[in-house]
Amino acid sequence: MDLCVFCLAVVGKSYIMAAIAESANEKGNHVLILAHRNSLIEQHKELFENLELNNNLTRIESVFTEVRHLGEHGKVDLIIIDEAHISGASSYRKVCEYYNCKRVLFTATPSRLDGKPLDLADVIVTGISAKELIKRGQISDYDYYAPNLDVDFSDVRKSCGDYNTQDLENKMSAKKIYGDILKYYKLLGKDQQAIAYCININHSKQVCDMFNEAGILAKHMDASTPENERQEIMNEFKEHKFKILCNCNLISEGITLPSANVGLLLRPTLSLPLYIQQACRVLTPVEGKKAIIIDYVGNVFRHGMPTDDREWSLSSKVKEYYNENEDGSFKIRICQNCFSTFETAPVCPYCGAVYEPTAIEIQNIKEIQLKKVEEEKERKRQEIMKRTAEKVKNYKNPEECKNFYELVEMGKRFGYKPGWAIIQAKRLHLYKK
């Protein structure tokens, strides 16, 4: 089998796929483009039609359809996989093993939650960074807020590598929490169109009801929503007919919604790919736009900022994020005045408020400072013992020793038990309690 490439692309994936397919077609090669969602498939088909690339050498298929009809459409010379962070699924593996041809895989988040390798590719190619894309205006810049809802997720059970959804729903269903969600949307979201990422279907419906009861028009959709109804909701959102689009695991991959300015993160997650896919969904660029991400559940403390540079690997899980500097202070801080997030600094760069270290930071700093003091004491002790050992290496009798440390090192040299030094120190009046 020829070399297979994993492309880390954060913008313009569909156009890159189209260019690769066109180049392969010109050489007479048959191309199969695979995706796992109908919305992605329709998006690719629409682009190919607009670019006038429709021909009998390229097929765009659902991986679930293809795996049931292997070989029925003739040979395949190149497979292109979209949102390939899920390419470890058995359906993708069966298709790739059957055709056994070159592959190009695309995603912005090449990482599996279980940490297993993404082994359908041989090499990873990283493109331009998200930060550079923001500078060039190819994705929107954003403000990131993390208001404190005072919810403790430490006792939430874990299922399949992520938080248990039923436990999360129980945590997030308190009346006060819904009130805070609404309050911070009004304060920080500035009445703009928003996508709400919820825990499960029931939670999404409850959030939708909350906004509607407050006079802010919202709609909910999930995987069970009929396709035509789902498309109608999406079209109405794009036409600004309502404000809040509530969903659960539906609008996180490959969907372009330029009208969405605000992302409401209401689902805590241990999945870095899910976090990035959801947080960055509102970064589709529009002239004059600055997106807003409101992280109600502290995902930024689990994973860092969504556009941070990361070291991705096909063979291992991305390095775990720790929100602590070497001195114990937090890498990412939250302004208690304006709720903006910013990197370690004594003053909020957005509103100028002085940052007061949290109780956890203060404790961390004390513990690290104490540890450093103890390490320094131990280092000095080791140096003293090393010098002492060198000094007594020619001593033959304990009477030659000037202090207890010399007796200890002499005892080590002769293989005596530790108590020997204490006995000799008492005899020679060198022992101090």
Structural summary, described in words:
Helices cover 38% and strands 15% of the residues. The chain is built from 14 helices and 16 strands. The chain has helices at 13-26, 38-50, 63-66, 90-99, 130-136, 165-172, 175-189, 201-213, 227-238, 272-279, 299-303, 359-392, 404-414, 419-427; strands at residues 5-8, 31-35, 58-62, 78-81, 102-107, 123-126, 142-145, 158-159, 162-163, 194-197, 218-221, 244-247, 262-265, 291-295, 332-334, 341-343. The strands form four sheets. A six-stranded parallel beta sheet has the order 3-2-4-5-1-6. Strands 7-14-13-10-12-11 form a six-stranded parallel beta sheet, sandwiched between helices. A two-stranded antiparallel ribbon has the order 8-9. Helix 2 links the parallel strand 2 and strand 3 (58-62).
| Structural class by helix and strand composition | alpha/beta
* Cα Rg: 30 Å
CATH C-level of the largest domain: Alpha Beta
Overall morphology: extended
How is the biggest beta sheet arranged?
Answer: 6 strands, parallel
Pick out the low-confidence regions: none
The helix count comes to: 14
